[in-house]
Predict the structure.
Amino acid sequence: MIIIGAGPGGISMAAEARNAGIAGEKILVLEKGETHSWALRKFYPPAKVVTANYKGIDAVCTGVMCITDMSKDETLTYIDQTIEQHQLAVHYNEIVNIVRPLATGGFTLETSNGKYEARRCVIAIGILGKPNKPAYRIPASLNKRIHYDLTSEVVENAECLVVGGGDTASEYCQYLVQHDNRVTLSYRQTEFSRLNRINHESLMALEQRGQVVILRGTNINRLEDEEGGRAVVHFEETAFAPLTFDHIVYALGGTTPTNFLKAIGIEFDGVAPVLKQGYETSVPGLYLIGDLSAGKKGGSINLAFNMAAEAMRSICGGTPELCEKV
Ligand SMILES: Cc1cc2nc3c(=O)[nH]c(=O)nc-3n(C[C@H](O)[C@H](O)[C@H](O)COP(=O)(O)OP(=O)(O)OC[C@H]3O[C@@H](n4cnc5c(N)ncnc54)[C@H](O)[C@@H]3O)c2cc1C
């Protein structure tokens, strides 16, 4: 079982799995931050009282983890202790970029550090993730021409610039070419060392056929809007003259949770993912817990803990051989 995100949802999921009798070496938590509970550390003021019935959600606990009203430090220490007591394997500084369901069941995951295979995957990434944005200012007048993903809008028959050098940047180039766009790619390095084989070959083939122009070793330092609203891109490198585009697509890492889920192929009903019993998605073996599944009202720590317990009961009910204690 691979669990994505080491917040209250992810850590309690791993603790529930251990409590159900799953061996420690069969459970892995992957966390993009340098430590667990990134959201609590970043957004909670130091002197905050962490309330057990946050947003009026009943503080009734149904699983192995539970908080009462306590300080921020006490809450973090409680999660530290859970990781230690259950001997949970958590890899920090490892962002999960792609989850691919396999036709034969199970998943492959691509992270910043490598690849994994899992029979089950639990996503507990919360709702606060955002795509990375460039450091320079983007004029507000260009907002409609700037994109951080290509899942929400169709861009066709236009002059497009993709910025980045990873798999997502290559995939955006391929997608834009298929939609009759004229595509330029700006990458700050001169070699594409991060691309997987398929994306590398596809990108090189597009370049050879003249369908993508690659500006290697280029750093954008400024954007301005041209009369007529198009984006003028200025480069740090004086060898590269300013260029004008209809659309700029940034692929600088990070994404919104919704786009992360949609890229996996999870079915949505409007803005909410379709969930079955035990928070299983439309993709068999793939679960969403914590704030991701809490709906419009939002979630709480104890709710995330309870969701983990319910997901585990559902997993054990379906495959009791997996769980010694059921
Ligand atoms: C200001 C504020 C105050 C709050 N106060 C309370 C309170 O008093 N009591 C209470 O019960 N609740 C409170 N909440 C709500 C509570 O914090 C959330 O309900 C809870 O954190 C949800 O847990 P989660 O595990 O779903 O998500 P998160 O806590 O958001 O954890 C998600 C984790 O996933 C990681 N992650 C994200 N993307 C990836 C990726 N691609 N790969 C690997 N890792 C990834 C993140 O770094 C993060 O560590 C508060 C929330 C806020 C914002």
